């Protein structure tokens, strides 16, 4: 090991606080100015570790801090502070949420170098394991700069700072598991276990004891193994009315199987909105209100088309031969087809089509036929015209405002700052009707 290891130095004054001795000989130091808005294009890829300079910490003087930390994820951070985090609650929360360790001044460079070396080794191991998996966009579900995915990341980051239950709903292939993992990795229990229960695979005669204490080999036993960490209830909307009461025990302050109090952060995912299932009599309201302490809906890929170039780059970078060959690219017709497709399968469909294209194409340039999509000859830009994008934005604005106001047209019009007459015209134009 040596200077080929990347060390990010995130500071409001990196040139002043960055140590020029010792560490510079053993690390490739990358200073990042916290006073500037996030821009990660010049930051080296993973594995990454970093020092978060919190000397003389003042949250009001660091408006970009959380956005930088989210943008640089995944990075393993060591906090550098001039005071004990126990003396300042907000500082302690920040370090506990984002940092794997912290170092109190005066600076002990050998000790800091040792800690960073251990953390970099683990980050490198995890990166190599991830590289061995098939290229997939599911683990990059939250990547991109579109307003919709930026809003999603911001909500997840806010929710992660609490230990309240979070319900994530979204269509198939939108990245619900990636969002759940993001919540865990940025939470106060990030260094605890992350356990998953696939609700669709649970036995039909599910009892409280079977779920909470479970027997080895049943595939139901992740509850107590999640102590001190996060428990993901995957596809919770697949539970039957008879199975659902077993979840109530997760929210009671009762000892676990080993006699200790359960300390578990509950995250649940669903494809069908649970509130709609409650109204239809297919999901118990008492279970729903315990699961849905905080809710977030993941956007469809068709609602974040501007993220596709970023997703393509991430996918091609993850290919096994990416480091040995020139980068793959899409020709103009293929890119146009991607943007005009409606993506019913979301990220999973995009990932599958790209894998198919890589297998079918012997060239570095991928065509529309390789993707299995319908070609759109030049001049046929119906889906990419400015009018089309405006119409799509109008339709989304109408639908969202009606949903937020429970189909109250007057209230929805006020949200959009338009008249009721204009609202009715837009509803008629885009065939948007109250449910």
Automatic annotation (TrEMBL):
Superkingdom of origin organism: Bacteria
InterPro entries documented for this protein: AAA+_ATPase, AAA_lid_NorR, Homeodomain-like_sf, HTH_Fis, P-loop_NTPase, Sigma_54_int, Sigma_54_int_dom_CS, VpsR
Span of domain Sigma-54 factor interaction: 142-359
Residues spanning the signal sequence: none
Keyword entries, A-Z: ATP-binding, Nucleotide-binding, Transcription, Transcription regulation
Keyword set includes GTP-binding: no
Cross-referenced SMART domains: AAA
Protein name as it appears in the record: Sigma 54-interacting transcriptional regulator
Organism: Marinobacter xestospongiae
């Amino acid at each position: 090991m040596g200077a080929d290891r990347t060390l990010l130095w995130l500071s409001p004054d990196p040139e002043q606080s960055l140590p020029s001795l010792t560490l510079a000989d053993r690390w490739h130091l990358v200073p990042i100015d916290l006073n500037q808005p996030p821009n990660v294009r010049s930051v080296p890829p993973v594995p990454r570790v970093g020092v978060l300079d919190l000397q003389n910490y003042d949250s009001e003087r660091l408006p970009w801090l959380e956005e930088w930390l989210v943008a640089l994820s995944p990075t393993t951070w060591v906090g550098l502070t001039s005071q004990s985090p126990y003396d300042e609650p907000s500082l302690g929360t920040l370090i506990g949420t984002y940092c794997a360790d912290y170092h109190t001044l005066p600076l002990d460079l050998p000790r800091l170098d040792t800690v960073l070396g251990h953390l970099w080794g683990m980050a490198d191991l995890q990166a190599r394991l991830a590289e061995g998996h098939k290229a997939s966009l599911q683990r990059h579900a939250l990547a991109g700069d579109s307003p919709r995915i930026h809003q999603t990341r911001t909500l997840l980051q806010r929710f992660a700072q609490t230990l309240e239950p979070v319900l994530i709903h979204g269509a198939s292939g939108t990245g619900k598991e990636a969002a759940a993992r993001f919540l865990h990795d940025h939470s106060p229990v990030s260094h605890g276990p992350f356990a998953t229960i696939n609700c669709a695979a649970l036995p039909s005669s599910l009892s409280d004891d079977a779920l909470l204490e479970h027997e080895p080999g049943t595939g139901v036993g992740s509850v107590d193994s999640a102590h001190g960490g996060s428990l993901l209830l995957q596809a919770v909307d697949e539970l039957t009315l008879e199975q659902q009461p077993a979840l109530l025990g997760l929210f009671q302050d009762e000892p676990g199987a080993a006699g200790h109090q359960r300390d578990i952060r509950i995250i649940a995912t669903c494809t069908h909105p649970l509130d709609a299932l409650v109204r239809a009599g297919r999901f118990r309201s008492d279970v729903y209100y315990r699961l849905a302490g905080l809710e977030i809906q993941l956007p469809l890929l068709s609602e974040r088309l501007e993220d596709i170039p970023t997703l393509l780059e991430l996918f091609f970078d993850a290919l096994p031969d990416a480091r040995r060959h020139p980068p793959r690219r899409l020709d103009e017709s293929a890119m146009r087809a991607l943007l005009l497709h409606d993506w019913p399968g979301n990220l999973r469909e995009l990932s599958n089509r790209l894998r198919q294209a890589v297998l079918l194409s012997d060239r570095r340039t991928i065509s529309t036929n390789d993707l299995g999509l319908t070609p759109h000859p030049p001049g046929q830009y119906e889906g990419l015209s400015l009018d089309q994008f405006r119409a799509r934005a109008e339709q989304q604005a109408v639908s969202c405002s009606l949903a937020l106001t429970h189909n109250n047209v007057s209230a929805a019009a006020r949200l959009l700052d338009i008249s009721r007459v204009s609202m009715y015209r837009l509803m008629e134009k885009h065939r948007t009707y109250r449910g």
